[in-house]
Amino acid sequence: MKTMRQLAASQFESVAALAAGMAEIHASIAAVLAGVAAGAVWVDDAARPAVAIIEGPEGSYLLGKPADAVAAAIADLLDDWVYLHVPPGADVSAALPNRAMLAHPRLVFSLKPADLPVILPTELTLSADADAIGHRLFDGEMEIGRCLPDLVIGARAEIGLWVHPKYRCRGLGTLLVKTVLDAARAQGISRIGWHCHASNRGSVAIARRFADAPPVQALAYSASLPAENAGDLDEPPCRQFARHFEAGEAEIVWLGFHAACAWAEAGETGKALDAVERLARNGWQGEPGWLAHHWALARLQQEPRFAAALETLKKQKAPPG
């Protein structure tokens, strides 16, 4: 079996040509190769790399088309929980670290400032970050939304948005994005990217208001739901995802977490609770707060079985004595 070798930062230039296409879509790759962001690079051949893995601030990236001889080495290198962005059209199945990995269709938009009518509600406060680009919304002292640069490299940036679920569908996301795009332009940033799951209807709708071209279709793989918000996915595929994750629990205990999320999104509360209880029984090493605060499990918050499972997990995590 071939091996993947890690490059020193001084050798990153050797993958520039291989990375060029993906770097146009993912600024994280460009930032790592330029030394602007922390990251790591592995290649099949240091002198003439045909395949590479780049770890960056926004995930991991597979470059090239892995042949069977190197695919096993890549699968061995990657963590089971990796979020792996892959080249369009490449057959990467043999390079994935486990059989639970699901395809995550994604969209990448290029955004420009737009003269859209937005109104800041009088009860809310808009505050700029120290970088003069990112902005946050507050209701009193509670932060209820933010739009921040995920990374900046020269005149290029990628931004992300979050709005508290109780404050959505009020135009606040559009307000934040417009504000940040205007601020970025004032700072000399002319190229702004926006990445989201293809299933994220709210994010896609906001991006289309500012997009200067149709989105680029991208693809990633992860052993998790291909979604970011409750209701993004229909119930039938969620049932399929739940069974898919359950099938892998004997090998990877934490897949029960994602089975619980999938069952909850499928409207199967009892099966979601069963999955949470299995985590507690099977010695899952994750944090109880990950369950308590996950968007897909919000509907379980009032269930006594959910509370009891969280309490069991807290006791298991508590130091002895």
TrEMBL record:
PROSITE patterns hit by this protein: GNAT
CDD domains to which the protein is assigned, alphabetical: NAT_SF (cd04301)
MF GO annotations: acyltransferase activity, transferring groups other than amino-acyl groups
InterPro entries: Acyl_CoA_acyltransferase (IPR016181), GNAT_dom (IPR000182)
Domain N-acetyltransferase: 106-228
Gene3D superfamilies noted in UniProt: 3.40.630.30
Name the record gives this protein: N-acetyltransferase domain-containing protein
